[in-house]
Amino acid sequence: MKQKDLRNKDNYNRISKFISLVLRHSPEIIGITLDKNGWTDTETLIKKLYPKFGIDLGILKEIVASDNKQRYSFSADFTKIRANQGHSVSVDLELLPQKPPAILYHGTAQRFVQSIYQKGIQKQNRQYVHLSKDLETAQKVGSRHGEVFVFQIDTCKMLNEGYLFYLSENGVWLTDEVPSRFLSSYDELIE
Fold first, then answer.
1. In the structure, what pLDDT confidence band is assigned to residue 116 with cuts at 50, 70 and 90?
2. Which of 34, 45, 97, 160 lies 20 to 30 Å from 181, alpha-carbon distance?
3. Which CA distances in Å does 47 have to 51, 95, 180?
């Protein structure tokens, strides 16, 4: 595939999704390793991606900059790259606890609502539960999984009980779990 053919949104999305898979879940599928903080060598990543996608550093920079979810970060000198959050492999993103807004949101599919009310929001195979600072983002996240349902999380009560929150570099709020006692339905609150 020629480089000029790569420079369109559909190809960038396809490449970005593959990079997300590699940097968050399965670095071994292209034979790279992540360090303890989730970084990998940029040059090595490009070399491993080149046979499949024909990319260079310029294209990788464009993909990172144009990713609408801002999934990735480069080191200051562009020699390393990592995913900002969403890992199922164990990495330490060096995040410090932050005070979140009083209310955060979690978008999910209707089919998961009863289970969440019973068990709370669990991180499943990821390192953290992902929460949104605004309703619109939560609705977008939930709509990827089916008919959307949005939970509202009382972060003030969680903080008072000692739960910690972290803010990823791309603006996603993270925590270890959200017990059901801190949840309410956004729909219930606006009726």
1. very high
2. 97
3. 8, 29, 46
